[in-house]
Batch of 4 targets.
Target 1
Amino acid sequence: MRRKLIAGNWKMNGSLAANAALLNGIKAELAGQSVACGVAVCAPAPYLAQCQSELSGTTVNWGAQDLSVHESGAYTGEVSGAMLRDFGCVYVIVGHSERRTYHAESEQLVAQKTVRALQCGLTPIVCVGESLSEREAGQTDVVIGRQIGAVLAAIESADLAKIVIAYEPVWAIGTGKTATPEMAQQVHQALRVRLREKNSQAAALVQILYGGSMKPDNAKDLLAMPDIDGGLIGGASLKAEDFLAIVRAA
Ligand code: PEP
């Protein structure tokens, strides 16, 4: 039985004051409760120290939104996996569609970043997803197969159980449009079939999250699907009450 995971992706939002209010709201609700699902927030790099000081000793984990493919050295502006570990990160998002689109991250680079995250002891949340035109052209399976295929080719079979995958249809991110539970389940199931080719035992353990306008009012139905093991939450992770409502749905 896979434990569900609800992970917030704050993107480039927040401030010390706003984060403190958000994290205090989350902590106040979850303190002293046994939470059935895993909970995490993925913050902009400058706020990871704040997450570490606010969330240490709680049931909420934290992570980053990207990492450098390099180990260390002359890479101005980059943040290494070891640095993220220094600040207590458990997770790092890899290959978010906004990075693939705005920073031209290739499938190969995403695969290499996944490997780097694993080497650093981080759990990569590997994002895959098709654009609207790709879906309309009937290319969803091909695109997702290519994206996940690059990652599977790069990692050791024994490491499969150490990654999290997020299916995020690009047309659903930040648009208010959500894949129906059935549409999402179909892709999640296809992803799991693909994972089995790499390591059938581990494939049953990998958490496959859905992301794309998951909100309190649609979370329950999405999370009820057999291969949807949680959510990667953008907009709704910025409001404690919305994020917590999704945690409760899980
Ligand atoms: C995301 O960016 O990972 C995401 C799922 O965003 P939203 O929930 O706002 O669609």
Note: The pocket of phosphoenolpyruvate is lined by residues 9, 168, 173-174, 211-214, 232-236 (CB under 6 Å).
Target 2
Amino acid sequence: MADIVRVLTDAVANQIAAGEVILRPASVVKELVENSVDAGSNNIQVIVKDAGKSLIQVVDNGCGMSANDARLCFERHATSKIRETADLFAIRTMGFRGEALASIASIAQVELKTRRKEDEMGTMVRISGSEFERQEPAGCNPGTSFSVKNLFFNVPARRRFLKSTSTELKHIINEFQRVALAQPGIGFSLVHNDSVIYKVQPETKKERIAHLMGHHFNHNLVNLETKTSIVNITGYIGKPEKARKTYGEQFFFVNNRYMRHPYLNKAVLSAYESLLPPESIPSYFIFLDIDPEHVDINIHPTKTEIKFDDERSIFQILLASVKEGLGKFSITPSLDFDQDGAIDIPVFRNR
Ligand code: ADP
Ligand code: MG
């Protein structure tokens, strides 16, 4: 019998990767906005139509790309962010896998316009379902604009599984919030079907939280600040009496990347202990800053799960930090610092 093993074409391989990375329009928003952050932009505009089903456009004023890079960035495993395996443990950028653009271009019609400040002319690249269509010089502002049309046009099964416009828009808003909360120094806007959902200028973290999550946070946040040799914790937690019964205002960021972490969520909840009304969940916006050498962000294609090499210590530090925050503002008057050791936290590395 003849040999039957074959190497897949790039187009097929890209579509398979897209299956993991691009679940819905919100995933495109996340990937494009993260690229704009990595490009050093201080203004990022997101424009969507029909909850991203017909158009997702992200315009930034970042570093832009050369004509060659504008073509190459759509190749699988094409990235400017890492070069060798060792770089994986020093990551400070949002991206590094070099697969987002290749994935998006395999399941949508994409137009890129980009110009570096030092170039007189920019460049335009059009690509559809992994097929390169054209590239030509283009007049454009410094920075980059990606427009993604008709997502999943060639993957009918995925397109059919998209939810209602309001549900998909909610997902987009969630992803937008996650990046915009982590980057208060960048101005952002989000426009859906010509109506402005958010428009924020560079501001403080606290102002950003109030602008994106609601003005009641101006009065309901408690500041966290804990420095240790393992991790630095900053951010804000909500006052216990304002805790809600539904999830949606719980944010962990590790080195400015949003992440889900049920185990650390438990640390926060246990710090509040009996202060919470029954079945309610406190709001929190907690930033963990940690040497990238001690985290692995390459355990999930969408990079929203992160593995710490010393999870237990981080749990203890976070628990103490939140307790301290609540105590500092006399929210837990009975808290005994000497006993809890909230400030002088005994930690040791288990490596
Ligand atoms: P990754 O972000 O993992 O490197 P992507 O597929 O998202 O992979 O992007 C590929 C490359 O394209 C990036 O490494 C970057 O060099 C370039 N790029 C993408 N978006 C932008 C942008 N908005 N501005 C400048 N360069 C960009
Ligand atoms: Mg990327």
Note: Residues 31, 35-36, 39, 60, 62-65, 73, 78-81, 95-101, 144 surround adenosine-5'-diphosphate (ligand 1) (CB under 6 Å).
Target 3
Amino acid sequence: MISRHADPPHALQHLLTLEGLPRAQLEALLERAQHYADVREDRSVLAGSAVCTLFFEPSTRTRMSFQLAAQRLGAEVLNFDASTSSTSKGESARDTLRTIEAMGVRGFIVRHQHDGAVAALAEAAGPATALINAGDGRSAHPTQGLLDMLTLRQAKGEDFSCLKVLIVGDVRHSRVARSDLHALRTVGTGELRVCAPQALLPEDATLEGCTVSHDLDAALEGVDAVMLLRLQRERMQEGLVGSLHDYHRDYGLTSARLRRAAADAVVLHPGPVNRGVEVTDEVADGAQSLILRQVGNGVAARMAVLEALLGSR
Ligand code: CP
């Protein structure tokens, strides 16, 4: 959820997860994101502010879109690279945060490989500092959830109650799936389906309210949107999937399979895409793919979040 700081009342302090975020707040963020998708920049919003991208894991889309978002709102942006920083001398993430905070930086966009690491850093931060979770472990990637909802709204309208949405792939290791599912439930999605091999399904409450299937052809019938997930090879224990070839045969989205979905169905993928594994080139680059639209919307969604957390400071 977005935690609240007592002074001023109702100001947002951190964005750590979409779980528990009220529908009105989620929709207000989406409205602002659409505003920034239309106007592209307003350099007065964060003029005089400095933000830092504090990434302990690699990223292309999230880090660069946050940089652009902050710049388009008028902020200075510092980019912390763990591989060339004093963390290589043993400095902790907490001390790194407090050190950069001491330079007057008040916004931190943090990615970390461990579940809960961003929340722990938020506890260590001062009361005037805002942290945005840019992905922690397999727990949450809230701004990906927001940009995915923005992309779906643009394609399908604001009423999610008439939509059938299918999530395919490695839900077990996916922070994107968790944030998407929180957001899809909050906006009242009509039907949620999940399709994956048993070994890639989570054993917690992530799938509450979803129809679960291991048969992609059946799961695709009539859906309005297919949200593909990257096979998280770097987090997988050996043996969860027989082979990439087998995975593609059983769970890869091909043009022939996509014809089972609604004629105007759209395809999303958070990237980076394992082409030929979870999706063919033909589908990834085809007319129904919104993959690059998602990337563009990432800037607008992140502008909305930066404004909400830092705009009034
Ligand atoms: N979707 C996403 O988080 O991509 P990056 O890892 O490139 O930021």
Note: The chain has two domains: 23-141+295-310, 144-291.
Target 4
Amino acid sequence: MSNIILARMGEITLKGLNRGSFEIQLKGNLRYRLKKYGKLRIYQSQSRIWIEPKEEDNPYFANDESAREIMKAVTQVFGIVSVSLARKFEGGYDEVCSNTREYVASVLENNPEYKTFKVSSKRGNKSFPMNSPQICCELGGYILDKFPQLKVDVKKPDFIVNIEIRDYNYVYSGKMMAHRGLPVGTAGKGMLLLSGGIDSPVAGFMMASRGMPLDCVYFHSYPYTSDQAKQKVIDLAKIVSGFSGHINLHIVNFTQIQLDMVKNSPQDMITVTMRRIMLQIAEKLALKNDCKCLITGESLGQVASQTLEAITATNEVVKMPVLRPLIGIDKQATIDISREIGAFETSILPFEDCCTIFVARHPKTHPHPEDVTEAEKNLDINAMVESGVMGTETIEINPF
Ligand code: ATP
Ligand code: MG
């Protein structure tokens, strides 16, 4: 018996004629994500993807414990719904019995508290002389005979013995849930406005889960925002890249622009004018880097800059669609996702953000269009946007 990873596809299987291109992208993404785990064979049959080592001594496939790391990496690839570690073997019903016996013994060794089980079977190879109900029934009886301490419970068993009869036979139990979605690369690229907060990394994760590769832009106001604040954003980009793949992180030197704004624009309007400039710089960078939309972590009503009026005032300066995947999402739900993707601990590190440093104590929460015109009349917006784009440093972020 050898170990093999079984990964189940989700939404892709609902696709019509273009399903093939989604599957090719998914396999390519898996190859890229798993390249540090040795030479692998990654192939597909029906709605499953199988991953096995080309070399017998690949340590990641040695046992359940060592496979955990590579399985976790598979769960980070969008398009996969769940992952199991299976044992693969050849032969007829006799081999199914002997290998299942060996497998159940190893499951019980690791989980001595297990008392009940059931057998579930799938038969892809129709030339196998027994059908699925027969396999379940016969094999269930065989296991009861060999492991008298076990009982069958079809409703709520402690573990399920899954048998699949295909070109080879497979036995496995349990699964690790993945992040579903569509393979990154099946949608156009987006430019994520990535701050050091909780929301924007989650927003990037959510758009990547719909197949969108990402670039990121971060507005940095050194020395008002520290090197640690910048490092935090780099770390967050790296966490997001574990799901989205390679990211170009564009760091805009925002200091002079913010100082000009503070000097030449009314205090209570700075939140809006600053965000308008951010969006314009982001759009220019997006165009330069082949991105088709902007993404922010805004959520309606969360803070002063996220009222409908403030969002409208910010939105109108750009032509590109601005995607806001968190717009109707509760903060706690966002925090839950942030924890799940491993970003939360980094997001809550207490380094200042450029928005919080220059923000007015009482920002105008419902700005009128004429307020905005008035607030910007002493600003040379075009020059500010241009200087922002020019003063950008780009860092390549790779997940591993
Ligand atoms: P987050 O948790 O993502 O920081 P927030 O709740 O702090 O969001 P705001 O400060 O109003 O809300 O920012 C709203 C959105 O604007 C952010 O989600 C992010 O997309 C973008 N943004 C804010 N500050 C920056 C920054 N310094 N660099 C890049 N994008 C930013
Ligand atoms: Mg923030």
Note: Residues 190-397 form a domain with the Rossmann fold fold (CATH 3.40.50.620).
